[in-house]
Amino acid sequence: MKNKKILLIICGGISAYKSLEVIRGLKKKNVSIKTILTKSGKNFVTPLSISSLSQEKVYEDIFSAENEAEMDHISLSRWADLILIVPATANTISKLSYGLSDDLASTVVLASNKIVFLVPAMNVRMWEHKSTQENLSKLKSYGYKIIGPEIGDMACGEYGKGKMSEPSYILRTIENYFKNIEKNKKYKALVTAGPTKEFIDPVRFITNKSSGKQGYEIAKSLRDNGFQTTLISGETNLDPVEGVKFISVKTAEEMFKETLKNLPTDVAIFNAAVADFKVKEINSEKIKKNENLDLKLEKNIDILSNISNHNSLRPKITIGFAAESQNLESNSKKKLDQKNCDWIIANDISDKTIGFDSDDNEVSIFYKNKESEKLLKKKKSLIASEIVNRVISELN
Ligand code: CTP
Fold first, then answer.
1. Residues 270, 215: Cα–Cα separation, whole Å
2. Tell me: the pLDDT tens digits for 2-59?
3. How far apart are CA 326 and CA 78, in angstroms?
4. Which is the catalytic residue, given 74, 156, 260, 293?
5. CA nearest ligand 1 atom 16, residue
6. 10 Å Cβ neighbour count for 293?
7. Is 11 a residue of the active site?
8. Same fold for the domain at 5-183 and the one at 185-395?
9. What is 5-183's CATH topology?
10. Mean pLDDT across the stretch 192-206?
11. How many secondary structure helices (H) and strands (E) does the chain include?
12. 57-61, 120-124, 362-366: which range is least confident on average?
């Protein structure tokens, strides 16, 4: 963790005293720490004890002219490699899930694009409350990582889940996070996403239904895990993914060319909805409606199949998607076989609450060499990180 920069946010809970132990542990590993102490956090630990341990000044107030001149809230969020909130109280979790920015801590988190680790600590009933759980699952879907909480005796005298994880466990988790990213930096990944367009004339085309959301989330998750990632995308309404090499294409042919150019990689995930047919002869002029239209189609190249069977460019792990409206298992297994890929991730497109334009998905993964498994309905970002976790264990 040497030379890493962590922005620590200490909120107001009885376990705030343990954050001092976290600072000591991080300092021992040569981590640079800047700390934000919330107003309620100040009831439990003092700025003096924090600055003595972190050897840095403590930031408290968003409207401090002195702090803003030295390091404003935006620079503070840019400075960090990671934001660690210890303890994360029910109030802070709730504020973050609604995007509030009424103090320095919440403003910095809202202004940051860095990974945020929350270490919750609260009474068992507060933890179990539906609103806390909903807030947390919203934050998880934004990519926030959660450490703990544990089950145990609480400071309030009750027993249950909500006890903050021990500093040693927090330190190990953060260290593993950085280690994994370092380890994955050697890996290259390629993702295709979105629909292709097959032109009939300059203004008309045949296309497939696809928002591209699942593929973009996979690219984001690969990036967050340290992979050198390329995203080749058909036209969607989504913004390019920051930190990912982004290539925009229109047709299947362009997608295929760019795929070839950007291989080999360690893993390739073919999520694009490639049009299976293209127009044999594209009209260079707009076809007028009083002309006879006789569309002749021909099969498009199957990108996945081509790459899976490529002698020199086949990635170590080649993954296809399957959109099925019936016989999900048999059709997916057939695709796994016919396309010679390692996994097929199948979507049931007859279920209108998932897939296509939805933010949620539910998929089954069919593997070449092991039993299939189902990832139950959740946000596409969470499906993406479950897929990427499996890719990482396979590569390692
Ligand atoms: N695929 C591809 N090139 C194509 C068609 C599909 O690379 N020309 C890839 C998709 O990106 C996906 C997988 O193949 O990873 C399966 O796509 P899908 O549309 O489900 O299957 P098809 O092969 O098109 O077969 P069918 O439409 O008959 O189900």
1. 8
2. 899 999 999 999 999 999 999 999 999 999 999 999 999 999 999 999 999 999 999 9
3. 48
4. 156
5. 322
6. 11
7. no
8. yes
9. Rossmann fold (3.40.50)
10. 96
11. 14, 20
12. 57-61
Q: Whose CA is nearest to atom 18 of ligand 1?
A: 322
CA nearest to 107, candidates 46, 48, 60: 60
Report whether residue 253 contacts ligand 1, using a CB cutoff of 6 Å. Answer: no
Dihedral-angle region of residue 143 (phi above 0 means left; psi in -120 to 50 means alpha; beta otherwise): left
How sure is the predictor about 348, in pLDDT bands with cuts at 50, 70 and 90?
confident
pLDDT at 350: 80
- The single residue listed with the structure tokens 């089950």 is 151
Residue at 103: amino acid letter = D
d(CA 250, CA 356): 19
Q: 69 pLDDT exceeds 80?
A: no
Cβ–Cβ < 8 Å for 295, 205: no
pLDDT for res 34: 96
Task: State the Cα–Cα distance between residues 251 and 206, nearest whole angstrom.
Answer: 10
Taking CA atoms only, the protein residue closest to ligand 1 atom 9 is 304
Residue 4 CB neighbour total at 10 angstroms: 17
Across 167-186, b (16+ Cβ under 10 Å) vs e yields beebbebbbebbeeeeebee
- Domain coordinates of the chain in residue numbers? 5-183, 185-395
Q: Token pair for residue 263? A: 């291989």
Is 0.70 topped by the overall pTM? yes
Return left, alpha or beta for 243; rule: phi > 0 is left, psi -120 to 50 is alpha, else beta: left
| Mean per-residue pLDDT, 225-242 | 97
Residue 72 has pLDDT above 90, yes or no: no
pLDDT category at 338 given cuts 50, 70, 90 is very high
What does residue 175 show for φ and ψ, rounded to 5 degrees? -65, -45
Q: What is the mean pLDDT of residues 223-247?
A: 97
Q: What is the pLDDT of residue 312?
A: 96
Q: Which residues pair with 159 in a beta bridge?
A: 153
Rounded Cα distance between 329 and 336, Å, is 10
Choice from 190, 274, 347 to test ligand 1 binding pocket (greatest atom count within 8 A of CB)? 274
Measure the CA–CA gap between 319 and 342, rounded to whole angstroms: 6
Beta bridge partners of 360: 379
392: part of which helix (H) or strand (E)?
Answer: helix 380-395
CATH T-level fold of 185-395:
Rossmann fold (3.40.50)
As a whole number of angstroms, the distance between CA 199 and CA 196 comes to 10
